[in-house]
Amino acid sequence: MTISTPITSAAAPGFDARRVREDFPALHQDVHGKPLVYLDTAATSLKPQSVIDAVDEVYAKDCANIHRAVHLLSQRATARYEEARKKVQAFLNAAKKSEIVFTRGTTEAINLVAQSFGASVLREGDEVLVTELEHHSNIVPWQMLCQRTGAKLVVVPMTDRGEVLRNSFEEKLSDRTKVVALAHVSNALGTVLPVAELIALAHERGAVVLLDGAQAVSHVEVDVQALDCDFYAFSGHKLYGPTGIGVLYGKERLLDAMPPYQGGGDMIRSVTFEETIYNDLPYKFEAGTPNIAGAIGLGAAIDYYQSFDQKAVHAHERRVLEYATDALELLPGVRLIGTAPGKVAALSFLMDAAHPHDIGTIVDSEGVAIRTGHHCAQPVMEHFGIAATARASLGMYNTTDDVDALLSALEKVQELFG
Amino acid sequence: MDLRELYQEVILDHGKNPRNHRFPDPYNREGRGYNPLCGDKITLRLQLDGDTITDIGFIGQGCAISQASCSTMTQALKGKTVEEAEALFGKFHAMVAGDEGSDTDLDALGKLAVFAGVREFPMRVKCATLGWHTLNQALRNEEGEAKTE
Questions:
Q1: Which of A219, A271, A380, B19 is such that its CA lies 20 to 30 A from the CA of A73?
Q2: Per-domain residue ranges for chain A?
Q3: CA dihedral defined by A102, A108, A113, A119, rounded to 10 degrees?
Q4: Which of B7, B37, B124 sits opposite A416 (nearest CB)?
């Protein structure tokens, strides 16, 4: 026997979304004369005040370049920057701090691996494996690499529910597979891939695995050692942190053997016109002055996020997603795109009455921010034979009230177009 | 922000039932338009006899604004010369995307004036102009796709 418990707006054991909302200043504004309902966290999450303050403080107080001067400001900035790296290490459960490379974001992290690792190991006839549900940023860098090296891009298909199954993955895996690049969580559909299982299969064939964790870090627990992935990429701005800062985790043994990605300051130990000796990890991959305030802001975002019980946050988000899924399924003329069991945080849908772009404009006029379009995942759209979807996506601050606001905004769509 | 300013009855009607949603036969000009932002795609074909557009039609898919814009555009252009068509595009563009205070000749635009509300929705200007950019490309007989970028 199952007992259905009524869903209340913010209640989840150990986590109070209503109180969390107080921490996010952007939530407390009107758009088009209506209170903002933010359902676009998959594009970027809002930032808590503590992150905004941390970034402010860097520029107001510790404004100096890092790893260079002997003066106090530089010492403080350097210490805080390296402290942020430690926070990322602990967050991902990486074995070493030197395995954490700061980048501009997920995209740059993937490009770094493709151009440095990929270009040095791939030969003509080798294969790079991706899945059908990847974001463009986990397709295009590999495509460019394949063009350069004569390697082949092989695509693992997904099911009509938006799942990547073990056996279809195994079918495409071969002894020629050198790199496997997988989304941990799909941005367009919310599917969570069975990555631990897929990584083990890839390793049996001697392939190296990169996970695109952009959509995963704020919705599922990530432990790079337990997963045994070789590379993990994510962006700060999808984890309640600033834009322009991201992370590449890589196993030390691999990072060590890789040539630098960009040349410049900070990545060198000594330079003469005859020879340059590169710096140690991770600095070898951090040429030029990095996004110091961004990294420190990301550290603050991790602190903020980890001040909650992650399991309770994820359970809360799951409850809101279930509420939204059930409600949208009941709306006549609405079709959900991506229905994988266990999916997280994103709800893509179509309406018979209106094109996604029109839906987006109409719900925006009601104060509800959603994303419409192909979500930088055109192969996903092609799979379903559509050009675009409307997507509502969740963060820790969303409640079922937000879902109710979306539902009444969708009624406006029906009114206007029905 | 009044949604009815954007979604006028004429636009909703043409969005739902686009006119000239067929290919003219014969035709001697073709343009293809694509808006990478939302995936809207249209193919526009027209018959140019001398300097006059004697027939025009399009097949495509997209939002109400882009489809209604193509539909009303094809209605407005039948029988017009190339020069008149280009002048109309200029006026249409000024209406939906021109600088603040730019003098818009709504009378000259006739039915196309229903798109005046698009100006208040900058994210939707590309939807309204996709058909017109495609027309430009068809008239110049250029290879490739018309982009709204």
A1: A271
A2: 11-47+309-417, 52-306
A3: -140
A4: B7
